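Task: fold both queries, return tokens.
Query 1:
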Amino acid sequence: MLGLALFYVGAVLCLNGLWLLGKIGDNEIGIIDIFVGGITLLISLYLAFGPGADAASIKAAALTLLFTFTYFWVALNRKNGADGRGLGWFCLFVAITAVPVTIQTLQGATTTWDVWFGLCWAAWGVLWLLFFILLVGQKPIAKFVGALTVVEGVLTGWIPGYMLLNGMMK
């Protein structure tokens, strides 16, 4: 399921980055956020409540829901015209949460994939922190954040997700 999730996380990050760069309109971006939020919600529910649920899968579900909630909130804000400060504060919560997740993932890493995944958490944490700065701090960094979001979408989602789906990584 990780390949499926990462593939579409890559898509939503790339498109949200393009949206921040002004390449996609406000009324249109919500579609991908709802779609990917739905995918990650279903995966999280299965991980938390499915037949193989255990402490590790419940933790994975909780962490995946950080993405899910972010995507749904972006979509809702595009429809209700909110200024994004609430989402920004949630992004700070997620960025802070990403710090111990990154450390734990890297400390427990035994494979190249584990190290890569720990570095992804670090990259995602930085991105969520930048969303906090953009939305709550009202700093003029949208173009930078948009470009970084596209890059992270490709490197932390789309490519590894595609590789996992095709059995090129395990």
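Query 1 returned. Query 2:
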Amino acid sequence: MIEYELYYLVGESKESELPRIKEAVEKIVVSEGGTFLAPATEEKRKMAYQVKKEDRGIYIARRFTLPDKDEFEASGKEEAAIHPLSVINRSLQLSKDILRFLIVLAKDLPELKAIPRVERPKVESRGGRYEKRGAVRPMPQAPVAPKEDTKPVSNQEIDDQLKAKLDI
């Protein structure tokens, strides 16, 4: 028997249908002679980019075994030309409920377990140095000349200065 790991993604909008989707995936693998192993992980996360208009998804990882080539050929099935992994792959590709999936050999992979996640506080993007487009900024203030010690000027002096300047 060869051990494989199946890692698939279901969109957040289908979260209510998750038990049915898991059962359908299990049925696909079991129908081809696979047997699921005990540990399974499930994690709801934000995706790095949108997949079929979904921003968040549920990642599910399961391990299963399939008969190796010798056991498969010895079974005497007429469909010996098509390996069960090809049939599983094709069925998962045609499923409308599964956004993405990956099947890999599990012999060099670490033990399947949930990864502890630490929630980090949300940090303002770009370090707060940049403002949003269209944001209103305060007007810079004109430099103010330092006040000199001046004596009070009377109205008569101001009138005399104006007459001198205007040549009245």
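Both queries returned. Flag for query 2: Strands lie at 2-11, 35-51, 54-66, 98-105.
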